[in-house]
Design brief:
With about 210 residues, this protein is of the alpha+beta class. Helices cover about 30% and strands about 30% of the residues. It has an 8-stranded mixed β-sheet with strand order 1-2-3-4-5-6-8-7, with helices on both faces. This is GNAT family N-acetyltransferase.
Length: about 210
């Protein structure tokens, strides 16, 4: 995907999205502090080898750019990704997102999304998608608060780790939506950070797995 959106570290006031590498296995294991955060995404990360396998799978996908999420203090608190990068149609998805319980309910998730969305649209994206399990009410609500529009259900869209088939709720935001969505998202971040611009917000796991 070189020449469109480069895979590089994104810096916010309260969260850093660091380019995920094989050296981050210990960080990812430390961030995986509760198996329940993986209910809707992937198999729980319980061991270093599982964390390494998760990273290997993320890096093996040529249409995915995974990030490690860190707090301003440098604490690893989860991961997120661009995926389904399609330069021909200038579209991508944001997902494979999970956060430590310590980061949930903070401003980390909305600031991370502000960074990801801002970079995508600044580099010419015209459409950004989110995919989540139709039954994941928390994730659906969190995506909607970003300013994304619900576009329908994709039946038998992804196979879950237990072998069952998932119906996916599809959300999207276009470049036409971005100006107003950015303002609303920034206002939400400001409220959650006590009025300081650039802070973070509610966390929920959603993803493209």
């Amino acid at each position: 995907m070189s020449g469109w959106i480069e895979h590089e570290t994104l810096h916010g006031t309260h969260v850093t999205l660091e380019k995920l590498t094989a050296d981050h296995a210990d960080d990812l294991l430390a961030a995986a502090d509760d198996e329940r955060i993986f209910r809707w995404t992937s198999a729980p990360i319980r061991t270093r080898s599982a964390a390494a396998a998760y990273i290997d799978a993320a890096l093996a996908d040529p249409a995915r750019q995974p990030f490690l999420q860190r707090t301003a203090a440098g604490e690893p608190v989860g991961t997120t990704s661009y995926y389904l990068l399609d330069p021909a149609h200038r579209s991508l998805a944001i997902g494979y997102t999970w956060l430590s319980t310590s980061a949930q309910g903070t401003a980390i998730n909305p600031e991370a999304k502000l960074l990801l969305l801002g970079r995508a649209f600044a580099h010419g994206a015209v459409r950004v998608e989110w995919h989540t399990d139709e039954h994941n009410a928390q994730s659906r609500a969190a995506i909607a608060t970003l300013g994304a529009t619900f576009e329908g259900l994709l039946r038998k869209h992804r196979q879950r780790s237990d072998g069952s088939w998932r119906t996916t709720a599809l959300f999207a935001m276009t470049d036409d939506d971005w100006r107003s969505a950015r303002q609303a998202l920034q206002a939400r971040i400001d409220r959650r950070s006590g009025g300081q611009r650039g802070a973070r917000g509610a966390a929920s796991s959603h993803g493209g797995s």
